[in-house]
Design a protein that fits this description.
Distance between the termini: 46 Å
Number of domains: 1
Radius of gyration: 25 Å
Keywords: ATP synthesis, Membrane, Mitochondrion, Transmembrane, Transmembrane helix
Shape: elongated
Number of helices: 4
Subcellular location: Mitochondrion membrane
Structural class: mainly alpha
Strand content: under 5%
Order of helices and strands: HHHH
InterPro entries: YMF19-like_N (IPR003319)
Protein name: ATPase subunit 8
Number of strands: 0
Largest sheet: none
Main location: mitochondrion
Helix content: over 70%
Length: 104
């Protein structure tokens, strides 16, 4: 059987480990931090909404909701400012290049 051939056995193990480790590090360094940040943000939003819903009375719940929204924006101000800076740093040529790549 070719999969048990002693001549190519080392090559198969080598390429398997190389492919597995490369996919592992891509997921570890690229995908997991993004997922963790989004789950953390989602949990904060749920906590803010539930805190606003637990208040008694309509006026106090609105006040609590807007207070929670303000707290959320304060905590994530750095994230929003870096995203805005990255968006502003794109030149007009790169914006058109991105648009043409996404269209075609």
């Amino acid at each position: 059987m070719p999969q048990f051939d002693k001549i190519t056995f080392f090559n198969q193990i080598f390429w398997f480990l190389l492919a597995f480790l490369s996919f592992y590090f891509i997921i570890l360094k690229g995908l997991l931090p993004v997922l963790a940040a989004s789950l953390k943000t989602r949990k904060k939003i749920i906590n803010f909404i539930s805190a606003a819903g637990n208040s008694s009375g309509e006026a106090s719940s609105k006040r609590a909701y807007f207070k929670n929204v303000q707290n959320f924006l304060k905590t994530h101000k750095a994230l929003f400012s870096t995203l805005a800076a990255k968006k502003a740093s794109l030149s007009a040529s790169s914006k058109t290049k991105i648009l043409t790549q996404s269209i075609f």
